[in-house]
Design a protein that fits this description.
The complex is a heterodimer of chains A (about 325) and B (about 450). Chain A is about 35% helix and about 30% strand. By secondary structure, chain A is α/β, with parallel strands linked by helices. Chain A is elongated and about 75 Å long. In chain B, helix 13 packs across helix 14. Chain B folds into 2 domains: about 90 residues, D-Maltodextrin-Binding Protein, domain 2 (3-Layer(aba) Sandwich); about 260 residues, no CATH class. The chains are: A alpha/beta (about 325), B mainly alpha (about 450). Chains A and B meet through strand 6 and helix 2 of A and helix 1, helix 7 and helix 8 of B.
Amino acid sequence: MLVLENIVKRYGDHLALDGVSMEVPQGKVFGLLGPNGAGKTTLIRIVTRITGPDSGRVLLNGKLMIEADVATLGYLPEERGLYKKMKVGEQALYLARLKGMDKQDATQKLKEWFARWEMSGWWNKKVEELSKGMAQKVQFITTVLHGPQLVILDEPFSGFDPINAELIRTEILRMASEGVTVMLSTHNMGSVEELCDHIALIDQSKVVLHGAVKDIRKQYSDSTYKVEFQGSPVAFANALAYHGEMMDPKVDGTYCNARVKLLHNATLNDMLKATLPVAQILGVQEEVPSMHAIFIRAVSEEEPAQVNTGMTE
Amino acid sequence: MGKIGLIIWREFITRVRKKSFLIMTLVGPLLLVGGISLIVYLGMQESGIQNIVVIDKAQVLTNKLQQSDDIKFFYEPSDMSDSVFKTSPYSAMVEVNPMILENNTIQVFYKDLPSQTVQNYLSTQIEKVLEKEKLRVNNVDPEVYQRIKTALKVQLFDIDKQGKQSYDQIKAGIGFAFGYIIFFFIFMYGVQVMRGVMEEKQNRIVEVLISSVKPFQLMMGKIIGVAMVGLTQFLLWIFISLILGGVGLSFAKDHISASAVQQAAAPQMSTQIEAQFAQSTTVQHDDDTNKQLSTIMDIWHDLPIVRILVLFLFYFLGGYLLYSSLFAAVGSAVDAETDTQQFMLPITIPMIIAISIAQTAVYNPDGPAVFWCSIIPLTSPVVMMVRIATGNAFDHPGELALSMGLLIATFIFTTWLAGRIYRTGILMYGKKVSWKELGKWLFYRG
């Protein structure tokens, strides 16, 4: 488990992180969200020890993180690239050895990965001969090759076609199932909903939202349900009485689709009890707010953003 | 191999494997030796045989000029019109006026400008004939003339080194050559360091790298790796130059001895006076050559060659480390090569000052400008080499120690400084960086 405690980072006059704390549970996919310039990259750079915090602590598995822990980290930065003139295999080997792997082990693991992702023919190609997507695959492999316990991926899906994005997605889920903690920084809310168990939302150098995705959704849900029933919409609405309000009924013969917003702390059971006598309930589904909607609501509830003057993202 | 070792190895091997390295390694000495040989060769070899017609109405020079393999003289007692000369097979036309013994002037008309060698040969030959003619007219015995004729030789002695001739200026020249090599090396490879840093930044690989290694390790790995490339290239150059030089020298030797034999044989065909005259000059010439040889040997023995080489290596590496770290800092701060200008200038200026002061040091190794520039670390690697070669630096060991100590302290300081700028700069994209900004980076907490 990775724990950040009260991290403060200042660049000149610009406060990049203002007392940021969060917990990233082991073996989960953790989404680090936030608008551009919020401080995500700075936070990641502190975790990867590229830069140090002005104050605050980073704990890895309960212990203060030290330089040697960098070897158990895999980091795929948003601004990423490879030496264009170097051969793919040689370069991957170099990056792996910089992570502390020995040559034989790294070669063997690389060959396995290359075989698995059907890119064995690339070994002796120069990077400049690869397409952007191919280079991204090489980069992903070099990020996770050394078997890190914490993998930090900054916008991992950018530059991938849907097929390769799926490949990465599968890999992320596989790693999480094997106990690897994955920290994902992205603007792609679709992949957050699909992959993340926990999130933290940073805005203007502060954490504004933090926790399990389920809990956050509940917190942001406004108790609205989609109800499909057979019967009279008017009778249904009357039966609801003070438990809720019916919206947008769509009638199709004797069938009806409607949205019901529960009022006065009524539960789904209350609603069902009230309406069962007058209607045949065919289906009920809670309208969960999308991460996209939550993101926008959480950010716009904050003060208007200042002009960012510090580190670029 | 540690991480920094890996980085050094990568920097080294990727550069050495490049075609441009191979080409530079082969072409460098070829250019050097080839250039020198070409100059020598062109100087020796004339473009074909020069047929020179001498218009000699007064018959002063007729049949008296000594010919060589490549230069033939033909004599005409009457004027030749320009159009006739233009269509004639002669390459040049020498007009001798009747008053030549008084005004010492000839006029040479040419189709293609004769080389310096031909011109020198021509004037030497004519001077000889004129001298002889004047001796005859004035009734002076050639032998007496030889005794009177004076070529002054100046021998310089340093009062502190009794009994030894001083060749300070020649030695200063050798020192300057060493200094120039340092200057060249710093620029060539300093810029390579800068380019390398910029490449990593532009490729966006740098953030990947520094999640595994410290920025300082990355910077030092690059600096050391490139230095090793430079040293390798340098050693290869020396090696190849020696081989090529050896081949060239043996070739030149054959050539020179052949022409010497011709020169020695030539006088026998002339009149007795001419023979005497020519012999004495030949002897004198040989004498000069021997003296020159012994002078070279003297300088060689007098040069503290081991100390020079050791100190050369010291100043070479010290200067390189100092400047290349600054180059690395510049590379880290900018996004594109065009933005380097404003930061390059303050790095370039001290180097240019150094090389021009070193140049003056050849003529005035003890001047105050030379002294100060040999102490100040930004210029000392180049300028001190001159003082080392003359031996002046060893007479003032305190100054030498100060210069060396300051250089070490300064390169430690500049690498530290560069490291601070570097670690911030490499992660900074899309920003025009000012001097003020660079100053701020120094004080960011790591």
